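Q: I'm writing up a methods section and want to include an example of the input and output format. Could you take the sequence below and give the corresponding predicted structure tokens, formatted cleanly so I can copy it straight into the document?
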Amino acid sequence: MFGLDDAIAGLSNGASVGVVILVAVLLGLRHATDPDHIAAVTTLVASGGERASRASARLGAFWGLGHALTLVLFGLPILLFQQYLPERVQQGAETAVAALIVFLALRLLVRWRHGYFNLHAHVHEDEHHHHRVRTPAGAFGIGLVHGIGGSAGVGVLILAAIPSTTVACIALIVLAVFTAVSMTLVTTGFGITLSSDRVAGSFNGIAPVIGVTSLAFGAWYALAAWGMVAYPL
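A: Here is the clean output for your methods example:
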């Protein structure tokens, strides 16, 4: 994003193993801020009935674990055998990411249209929320899809340029782990923001903006996956 990956990767040129691992850590921490992840995590947290920091952290952790799993499973063959996913398969994975973003955005808009956020504009200390939308298993599944497609492949391609296969594989695992850590932190941050008194009280007005923006991004991402528009980053 904005050339940041290349700048970080450039630190590893001719560097020691320790520096390469540090580069993988930095790439992992930065990766969660990619636009497709931000679009997904915003609607992931916003569409749920639980917007508290603990619930958001749990969703972020499972989302990150799913992402890390497929990132490693699909990244290792590239590093070990130079076996890349066929172009059509990769294109299908990118389309799945776009469809996922659109689905989350539409779900958020539907729930807003039905007045769901009017019912939760304030904290119910003595009541339980009966509309739990997103479960850890669901967040894990979303992470699996994101790990196959999305911008994850960029990090793998950067690591593929490392001369030592062993170091590259270790760096891939470090990248996956710290991407999961970063996703947990980002999701927690969104949860804390959305559950704050100032935001929660006006969330019914914010929800459609989030939904429409994510919907537009998902549609654009689908077009970009099929080469109809260019990726700007």
